[in-house]
Design goal:
binds zinc ion; eight-stranded parallel β-sheet; TIM Barrel
Length: 286
């Protein structure tokens, strides 16, 4: 069973009219204005999954700034997930700054079959992790038994559109403030796993998980071995950020094959492979 825990698809409206959405949402515009960044719908995602032997994918919501776009996109995404119940599961797009309306929207989405929320992005959506609205949202997420996918990225290294500055100390404060929140930190937690070598961080981060989204654009393949050795294979989720081109020098179309081949070549044990590639997603999302 292979589950991609981190994909992004968009509704036909957004794909057809990205310039209008870019006007309404500057962060979306930074990443998707023009036609360089790929946008796909559900059918293209499923075709790519079929070609590569991916059983299921988690649809991560975009980190829309306007609450109204979150609501509109969630309604579309819920319908798509309902049409493909054996292949697609979905996370709600939520703007934490919307306060009580954000919590109501999360409740609507969970009632509609969604399994969590995210990918939230503190830089892109302009919220702080210690803000009262955000904390209330995190608490409600934990009460609902839902999962939060939070964008994190490495504070060092090359720059790229969308690279944020969320401090890892803020992430740690969130983990301590809402310890029962099931939290997936995207993109290897931006280095957070390293601090699980500290006993108190390890203990506090019992419900924290890490995904491998966009990994080949950021790290050498040995990061899988390294992070598994630090946090254990039960805390790492295979995620791709599909349809992002992970090997832009040799790829012109999104394709799972090279990333899967790279992971297969790492010599993970059977148990590690099964955990990372699907079992952890099943356990975390229930
Ligand atoms: Zn991300």
């Amino acid at each position: 069973m292979i589950i991609d825990a981190h994909t992004h698809i968009f509704s036909p409206d957004v794909i057809a009219d990205r310039a209008r959405y870019a006007e309404r949402d500057p962060f979306f515009g930074d990443l998707y204005r023009g036609h360089a960044a790929r946008m796909i719908g559900a059918e293209e995602l499923i075709a790519a999954m079929d070609a590569a032997g991916i059983d299921q994918a988690v649809l991560a919501g975009w980190c829309w700034q306007p609450h109204e776009i979150c609501v509109e996109q969630n309604t579309w995404t819920m319908e798509v997930a309902r049409q493909h119940p054996d292949r697609l599961r979905a996370l709600a797009a939520i703007q934490p700054n919307a306060g009580a309306a954000a919590i109501r929207e999360l409740e609507r989405c969970i009632a509609g079959g969604m399994i969590g929320l995210g990918e939230l992005n503190a830089d892109g959506q302009h919220f702080d992790l210690d803000n009262a609205n955000f904390t209330a949202l995190a608490r409600r997420t934990a009460e609902l038994g839902a999962v939060m996918l939070l964008h994190t990225n490495e504070p060092v290294g090359h720059n790229y559109p969308g690279k944020g500055r969320l401090p890892l100390a803020d992430v740690y404060a969130l983990v301590k403030a809402v310890p029962d929140l099931k939290l997936i930190l995207a993109h290897w937690g931006g280095g957070f796993p390293f601090y699980e070598l500290m006993r108190e961080v390890r203990k506090a981060a019992a419900n924290v998980f890490y995904d491998s989204a966009a990994s080949p654009l950021l790290y050498s393949p040995q990061i899988f071995r390294t992070i598994i050795d630090i946090v254990g294979s039960d805390k790492v989720l295979f995620g791709s950020d599909f349809p992002l081109l992970l090997y832009p020098k040799r790829q012109t179309e999104p394709d799972y094959a090279p990333f899967l081949a790279e992971i297969r070549g790492l010599g993970l044990s059977a148990e590690e492979w099964e955990n990372v590639m699907g079992q952890n997603s099943m356990r975390v999302y229930g």
